[in-house]
Amino acid sequence: MAHEKKISRTNPGLIVLLLDDSESMGWKLLGTSDPKYKWVETYCGVIFDELLARSTESTGKDTIIKPRYYILVIKYGSNPQLWGSAETDIETAVKLFTNDGNSMGLGGLLGATDAKAAFGMVYDHLQQILAGERFRNSFPPMVFHLTDGESQTDAKPEAEKIMQLSTNDGNVLVVNAYIGTQTNLNYKGPEDFPGYIDVSEAGSSRDNIRLFEMSSEAPEAVQANLKADGIFPKIRPRSRLFFDVRTKEMLKHTIQVVSSIGFRVAG
């Protein structure tokens, strides 16, 4: 299907953030003095503000917020946990994030890494949400999974089930971002990142291959926005939504991928 529907109040977008909060997320991000989870929260906050701005209109002296975006956040380690409540409108999500000290409660506190259980929880929520009317004609939900370690379980079957869910505009998109891994793709940073097309580019690691294979191919409209916004200006056609995060700059740009579903709001 096309994946071309514009975001609007009538047909809002849904973004699912699936965030690894296992013990190793408390370790420092390479080249920085802060733990990985802190950088994740910082850049997620930036995206929240951007999505809120896209949902805000000024009419004279009044400001009106139209809920064009909804957020579902699940953090996981040994067990997945819901942050806030399911299917939260962007205004409510920003207030919750701000009131909690610009935090989702991450801290590398949830033990080991059970990606299978986490993706299973996402599937259960999406299956229920998409059975309703709110997103029936919307651009499909985008599931953004960020992890920094090897999972003790295989989430690929659950990810494939998620990618079979759909709205009238196409199938759900799954994005995988792996902090700290090594691949066979040569690039310096976001400005020349070409995207992953073939599994051989992802390297020989079992986890790299698994995450590549459970990532959706970027629709043409998403690729166009990634280029137009200067997020990944060199990304190639038919690239998978799989990213290796080597620096905080790459993390910032990778998290910005979730805002590429906007296609500029329609009303």
Characterise the protein shown here:
The protein starts with 12 loop residues before the first strand and ends in a 12-residue tail after the last helix. It has a single domain (13-261), classed as von Willebrand factor, type A domain (Rossmann fold). The chain is an alpha/beta fold. The longest helix is centred in the first third of the chain and has 19 residues, at 36-54. The strands form three sheets. It has a six-stranded mixed sheet, with helices on both faces. The protein is globular. The protein has seven helices and ten strands. The relative contact order is 0.19. A hairpin with a 2-residue loop joins strand 7 (166-167) and strand 8 (170-171).
What are the salient characteristics of this protein?
alpha/beta, six-stranded mixed beta sheet, two-stranded antiparallel ribbon, Rossmann fold, 267 residues
